[in-house]
Amino acid sequence: MPVRRYRHTLSSRAASCHSLLLLLLPGCVAFNLDVSQPAVYSGPQGSHFGYSVDFYSPDQNTVNILVGAPKANTSQPRIVEGGAVYFCSWAAGGAPCSQIPFDKSSNRTIKVNGTKEPVEFKSNQWFGATVKSHKGKVVACAPLYHWRTFKLTQEKDPVGTCYVAVHNFSDYAEYSPCRSGLEDPEGQGYCQAGFSLDFTQDGNLVLGGPGSFYWQGQVITAGIFDILNGYDFRNLQRRVNGERQTGVAPADYDDNYLGYSVAVGEFTGDSQQELVAGIPRGAQAFGYVAIINATDMTFILNFTGEQMASYFGYTVAVSDINNDGLDDVLVGAPLFMDRESDGKLKEVGLVYLYLQEEEFLFKDAQRLLGTEVFGRFGSAVAPLADLNQDGYNDIAIGVPFGGEDRRGKVLIYNGHSTGLISKPSQVLDGLWSSDSMPPGFGFTLQGGSDIDKNEYPDLIVGAFGASKVAVYRARAVVTVDAQLQLNPSIINPENKSCQLLGSETLVSW
Ligand SMILES: [Ca+2]
Ligand SMILES: [Ca+2]
Ligand SMILES: [Ca+2]
Ligand SMILES: [Ca+2]
After folding, report:
1. Ligand 2 midpoint to CA 445 (Å)
2. What does pTM read for this prediction?
3. 151: pLDDT confidence band, cut at 50, 70 and 90?
């Protein structure tokens, strides 16, 4: 917000005198997120509204907001807390949000031995745990969606499912790639497809299913139009044309959680983007992040964590931080423990930045260490585009359980030619107090879109524990040194040429 410093205080005594001259000297000009007036959106209490967030920009002139509320109730018959995604139009003062009707139906049924049984279980499926948009396309997923399988014995496998919407929410299709013939934990039965989600720049969907193959996990990619083309809701097991999946690995990759997080970037110097996937329990629980060739789904490069159980790869993000035209990789390890001077380990979290020096060659990581014990620094890492318009992209890092009274906070870091400036340029403090549960302010972040069309990119902060979302807008911040100069500079007490307001008394100034 604008800061004004006055070297002198004006006295109202001399208000009618024109001999005072206020000079505004140019101060330092910067761009920043306006913390004084965030736009606040609210969902139903306890719905976890804000667990996922994204911008939605169906055309060049409009930007709106999508908010996942995975414990919301819907109008789906007989479904309890199926979860929902809300559409919120942009308004500086916040606005009401409405549920997007991705799926209006109850559980589908099959006949087993002459009786109708549900073939799927949508209650408590966490629809809206993830949501992403790419231009006019929107995908949202329910990683805890269960299905019965076609076996005679009834099972409930958490395969996960996703819904796609296009044409301004007029066309929908379901996409559940793990509802396949590969059942049970050894197959894709525990896949939890859609646990993580992203789009390539071509608009292809990338999703993580960390539970497939005894929790080895997998990454799956498919084209939105291939999902829509020939879609039939009665066809429960469908292989989409052009779909690609990472496969099963040897048993020592069990419990690795590949696909816990996903992102995309360009690392080979061509125009075919690669996939980036977090594997937080891989490498003997040190965690690693893999760059995956999107054509043949082979792993082509790994970054490995440095501490067991730090959850390296809990989140991944891609941005060109040092403005050399090459994508860089950011990895969050929110459970990283730092050894303090007293020798004790304290869980503070860590974010790593890997600068791509040249195609496919990365520098050693720059490390940004959290400061608050159990704050979960690095739970969310969001590219912000160039917030302060200095030519370098900036990022936001969530500390959802840090801050005063565990209200959560978000730290803004600015990029420069050699990486990130290690001191945050701004801190957003949580807006809501801890009630029955912590608000989780900063658990989800999304930046990089200009919602109010003032040419500066803005930031959405989710606080699912409070079922609220705040949108912070970037704007120019001008620090002004205001200097009061008296004219004439030497006051002659005999020269009473100024009149006091509301009186006829003449004074010298
Ligand atoms: Ca490439
Ligand atoms: Ca770069
Ligand atoms: Ca910048
Ligand atoms: Ca803006």
Report:
1. 21
2. 0.88
3. confident
